[in-house]
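Design request, tokens follow.
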């Protein structure tokens, strides 16, 4: 039996009843694919269901305010996905009357849609013979065919795409593509896969060469950058505080945060007081104290944020203050959301 036939047969037995598998609606498939980039399925499902309830159609998403979209996305990370999602929804609603194009060539032109998402949408929604290559597919193909080209090199990416095209089942591309990704997620897992019970074990080159644990090959990431964030949580006599919206390039653009003092290393209260005026226009505070003795280390893909929250008690009423009880209404990074939930003054 061929590679693709085995995948289809396995998928028929083992596929999970995921909510987006009940439809071919391009909007819903697109939404699920964007959400599942850099996100585990179990984490993505509740976000998907919440989004679909809030924005049942692409026109509904297009009509939403960006803050609404970012708030619902809060906790999924990689917020550029949400901003691109919103921008593309507006474009589809305005330029395509709410109807997604049905070809890879047109889909890949849309903001936030790359080769993988365009291939997935074209095949799942429109039965177009397009090969999908995501992390799961890289792993299955690298192990089964014994390919040691780095999957994050330009040569490797091109090779695996060609290989995926060669072995795909064009007669049932929708189920085959979903089956191949599912096989990588459930059967050919990153660590400790069940090779004995695997239906592909007879022809698997990696298994024959005892190379399962070393494939696929990936070029090492850049060195992790350490950053030191000191959030200044101002509190006035009315139990109001201040939030600022992040602008410009970098992480968390358009999300809200407390006034931020970023330093080269961990600092103490004297340095916080000394540098307050560089961050906020505030008369001498009545008190400044550290909320969390232990740094919170928030890990992103290329940087670790060593974070401390400093409570700054203001003598006078804050201009443009936000009630502490209203903080939950704003889209914020997850580490700030966790602080807000725990914060008691």
């Amino acid at each position: 039996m061929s590679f693709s036939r085995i995948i289809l047969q396995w998928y028929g037995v083992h596929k999970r009843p995921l909510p987006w598998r009940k439809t071919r609606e391009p909007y819903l498939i697109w939404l699920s694919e964007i959400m599942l980039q850099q996100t585990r399925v179990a984490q993505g499902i509740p976000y998907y269901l919440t989004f679909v309830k809030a924005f049942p159609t692409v026109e509904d998403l297009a009509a939403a305010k960006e803050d609404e979209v970012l708030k619902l996305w809060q906790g999924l990370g990689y917020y550029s996905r949400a901003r691109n999602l919103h921008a593309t929804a507006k474009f589809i609603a305005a330029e395509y009357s709410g109807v997604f194009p049905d070809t890879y060539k047109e889909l890949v032109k849309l903001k936030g849609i790359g080769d993988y998402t365009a291939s997935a949408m074209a095949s799942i929604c429109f039965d177009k013979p397009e090969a999908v290559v995501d992390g799961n597919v890289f792993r299955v193909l690298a192990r089964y065919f014994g390919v040691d080209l780095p999957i994050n090199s330009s040569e490797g990416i091109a090779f695996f795409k060609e290989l995926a095209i060669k072995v795909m089942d064009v007669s049932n591309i929708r189920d085959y593509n979903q089956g191949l990704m599912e096989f990588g997620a459930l059967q050919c897992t990153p660590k400790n896969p069940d090779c004995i019970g695997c239906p592909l074990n007879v022809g698997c080159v990696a298994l024959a060469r005892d190379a399962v644990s070393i494939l696929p090959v990936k070029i090492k990431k850049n060195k992790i950058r350490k950053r030191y964030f000191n959030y200044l949580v101002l509190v006035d006599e009315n139990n109001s505080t201040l939030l600022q919206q992040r602008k410009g390039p970098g992480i968390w653009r358009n999300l809200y945060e407390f006034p931020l003092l970023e330093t080269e290393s961990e600092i103490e209260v004297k340095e916080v007081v000394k540098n307050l005026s560089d961050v906020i226009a505030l008369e001498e505070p009545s008190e400044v104290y550290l909320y969390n003795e232990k740094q919170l280390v928030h890990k992103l893909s290329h940087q670790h944020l060593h974070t401390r929250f400093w409570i700054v008690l203001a003598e006078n009423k804050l201009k443009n203050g936000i009630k502490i009880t209203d903080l939950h209404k704003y889209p914020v990074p997850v580490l700030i959301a966790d602080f807000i939930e725990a914060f008691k003054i």
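Comment from the thread starter after seeing the answer: thanks! The longest strand covers residues 225-235.
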